[in-house]
């Protein structure tokens, strides 16, 4: 059985306690487009919001589950400890630093990592984010910012960059990444703030949109997730045929997994790597325009066909969220 390499990062899904405030920050402050307002398919009483480039191209989606009673996050090990967002060049990072200062967004100074300029910041719930410049990047292409964004297109976010995993036993995660998932190690770096070594792995065409960065932390407790934490990271599979091969591969390697899962906007497979972090493999399509046209993505509550008969019941449980005014 021949399986094609994973193509890069597909999406990252995180937690928020307030969908309205989350929508305000990620559209008005970060300038992302809400390409889909739907529900968590495993718990239809809460929103699932998808922010991305102009049409939600694979590799550009940062998504949020709304958990209204979510407590604070207690950072720790065995977690997705940072999510990166790509911008076109170094000049864009200076635009963002000025924007964050003006809008009072918590941020650090611009720093260099692996020859790339980066800018770490936190959203209003403490979500740990990093802007990374594509100026020297070679590899998976980014997306295209929405032309109606609050941020000029030349400075806009073009997709997801590296995800950072902090784990207590890195050799276990690395074994899955390299021997099962086909990632390859490249030159790592030393983190500026605490001098921790960061090991870097990439897949597919490589580059910022296809990297996982791993930091060892065997001393702290496991992270207690809440608002501002990351739920899972998904990696790109070309199509349904390829995904079914991955289902078979995980089965043959006796790795517990969800099996094939229909998500309507893409097809998925879920499993936990040995340190307990949830990984998803997701197909590049069908995409977000099957139930809404391009010009009106994210404006109304979208439900996959298999939930449509429950629309009235589902809508009754959700707080109204106006997403027609960008």
Automatic annotation (TrEMBL):
* VOC domain ranges (all copies): 8-134, 159-284
Report which superkingdom the organism of origin falls in: Bacteria
Instruction: Cite the InterPro entries for this sequence.
Output: Extradiol_RC_dioxygenase, Glyas_Bleomycin-R_OHBP_Dase, Glyas_Fos-R_dOase_dom, VOC_core
Keywords from the named record: Dioxygenase, Oxidoreductase
Q: TM segments?
A: none
Q: Name one Pfam family in it.
A: Glyoxalase
Has keyword Oxidoreductase? Answer: yes
Q: Which GO terms describe its molecular function?
A: dioxygenase activity
Q: Does the keyword Oxidoreductase apply?
A: yes
Q: Which PANTHER family match?
A: RING-CLEAVING DIOXYGENASE MHQA-RELATED, RING-CLEAVING DIOXYGENASE MHQE-RELATED
What name appears for this protein in its UniProt entry?
Ring-cleaving dioxygenase
